Amino acid sequence: MNILFAVSEATPFAKTGGLADVAGALPTALAERGHQVHLFLPLYREIKEQEKELHEMATISVPMGTEQLFGSIVNLPSKHPNLSISMVRQDDFFDRPFLYGPADKEYPDNGMRFIFFCRAVLEAVAALELKIDIYHAHDWQTALIPVYLKTLYKDLPLYQGGSLFTIHNLGYQGIQSKELMPLTGLDWAEFTFDRLEFFDHLNLLKGGLVYADALNTVSQAYSREILQAEFGFGLETVLQQRRDDLYGILNGVDYQEWNPADDPFISNHFRLGRMAGKKSCKTKLTSAFNLPHKNQQPLIGMVSRLVTQKGFDLILPLLKRVAEIKAQFIFLGTGDPEIEDALAKLARQHPTQIAFIRGYDNRLAHLIEAGADIFLMPSHYEPCGLNQMYSLRYGTAPLVRAVGGLDDSITSFNPKTGRGNGFKFKEYTHTALEQTPKEALQLYHEPQLWRKLRQNGMRNDFSWTQSAAKYEELYTKIESDRS
Ligand code: ADP
Ligand code: GLC
Question: Does residue 435 carry a pLDDT above 90?
Fold first, then answer.
């Protein structure tokens, strides 16, 4: 199958969150299954700076309202013969210091930037003479691709492939002023309640939900949750209407990137049966975060975008009472300045128990996975979540809320049966969160049980092979439903 994979970030080129991890791994997993995959990304400044081998393949002229904007397609060398990596170059839009804007601020023209990107990708299909069977778009930034395929490009013979739209996070919808409608080139007839209109605004994500041949979320639980008002962000009715075409496929883990046995970011490697290195990682981690080393206490780590989605309205009150908890906490992240300030203040108040590094640092993220005993993810909602699955491989017990992908990947450890790979609580309340670390702390002091818990997690296999096979099945279904 010829698959076009359009996305706004992908490792190792540009990353702000888990979307990049998925887009970095899934195309290769599909290529390994024999498919021809064409990955498209914007050519951001950081990619231009990192990558020396950029080959210009074509210039493109992209209609934007009544004007034409020029851009080009540059290719990067790919490690797999079945995978091509193309970047849309338009320096006014993408040669900027950030992908979407600084910290919690968006560039004001993000709508325009990604309308351009979607259209540019479709123009590139003609310019590069690609024959595409499936267009796979992700999140609001590429949601117009399925819309265009069913409208402006519908009757063009080159664009007869099917489309899949993956929802990685319904909380980000790319809501724009309706004044951008003319720029999209779409008819105003598309600006209705059952199509792209949303409270008198243009909702790009909604376009993907309405027009793609099939939809999926990144876990089964999340595909059910978003049908309810609590998780639907106002789009639950649209999703209910598409219920029959909505699937859930759990993300996988790239074990080449996340493997404690040969992780280049840690100096003491470990694996099942040879766990000594993990102890050294814990010492290195506490030193890196300037905490006194306390081996008798569990070290609870978290690597996250600092946004309410991740459960900080539960975490901050818990940390205020840290003196009552016999554990140390380590946080790495950037995001909402209020959360950053609150964490920094708590770390100053409790310098032997809480440490916080404000920043984005892949090396430290790996060190936290390796050195922590417990990984904290009490998310309000979580479409999939990757860190809980990384933690399992590093023998770090995830402590999660039973929601979305966290619920699908983590089962509470049962000391009687010895089954389970983490700690899980259901209600989004302070009491529920406070109770779970207590249980975890108790278990930490029972070395045999703790070892069992770790082993269970390290034996789990969330590799991309299974998820890629499910995507393949879904692509095939889309193709056969269309023929
Ligand atoms: P989300 O995509 O909602 O942010 P995920 O759990 O799917 O959540 O993925 C987050 C990814 O981003 C993980 O690979 C995580 O390690 C990484 N990450 C998040 N914040 C940081 C940070 N401050 N430094 C390094 N990596 C980070
Ligand atoms: C989103 C979600 C996260 C998911 C990631 C990759 O950013 O918030 O839960 O793991 O996308 O699919």
Answer: no
Q: Is pLDDT above 90 for 192?
A: yes
168: Cβ below 6 Å to ligand 2? yes
Q: Spell out the residues 6+ positions from residue 99 whose beta carbon is closer than 8 angstroms to its own.
A: 8, 9, 14, 16, 44
Task: Please name which of 405, 407, 422 lies closest in space to residue 457, comparing C-alpha atoms.
Answer: 422
State if residue 252 touches ligand 2 by the CB under 6 angstroms criterion. Answer: no
Q: Under CATH, domain 276-459 is a member of which superfamily?
A: Glycogen Phosphorylase B; (3.40.50.2000)
Distance of CA 235 to the CA centre of its chain: 20
- Positive or negative torsion for Cα 340, 341, 342, 344: positive
The whole-number pLDDT of residue 365 equals 98
Q: 2-252+464-482 has which CATH code?
A: 3.40.50.2000
Q: From the CB of 219, is ligand 2 less than 6 Å away?
A: no
What are the phi and psi torsion angles at 307 (to 5°)?
A: -135, 160
Q: Which atom of ligand 2 is nearest to the CA of 386?
A: 10
Distances (CA, A) of 453 to 298, 345, 396, 398, 457: 14, 33, 9, 10, 6
Q: How do residues 317-356 score in pLDDT, each as one tens digit?
A: 999 999 999 999 999 999 999 999 999 999 999 999 999 9
Q: Is 342 in the pocket of ligand 2 (CB under 6 A)?
A: no
Residue ID of nearest Cα to ligand 1 atom 20: 304
Substitution candidate for ligand 1 out of 7, 9, 21, 340 with most atoms within 8 A of CB? 21
Do 276-459 and 2-252+464-482 have the same topology in CATH? yes
Ligand 1 atom nearest to 16, measured from its CA: 12
Tell me if 307 CB under 6 Å of ligand 1. no
Is 386 touching ligand 2 by the criterion CB < 6 Å? yes
Beta carbons within 8 Å of 179's beta carbon, 6+ residues apart:
none
Answer whether 18 contacts ligand 2 (Cβ < 6 A). yes
Supply the pLDDT for residue 364.
98
Give the closest ligand to the alpha carbon of residue 218.
Answer: 2
| 139 close to ligand 1 (CB < 6 Angstrom) | no
Mapped onto helix, strand or coil, the DSSP state of residue 334 is strand
Contacts of 218 (CB under 8 A, 6+ apart): 22, 166, 167, 168, 248, 249, 250, 251, 383, 384, 405
Tell me, in angstroms, the distance from the centre of ligand 1 to residue 398's CA. 15
Geometric angle at alpha carbon 219, from 196 and 374, rounded to 5°: 125
Of 256, 231, 233, 253, nearest to 385 by C-alpha is 253
Has residue 454 got a pLDDT over 90? Answer: yes
200-211 tens-digit pLDDT: 999 999 999 999
Per-domain residue ranges of the chain: 2-252+464-482, 276-459
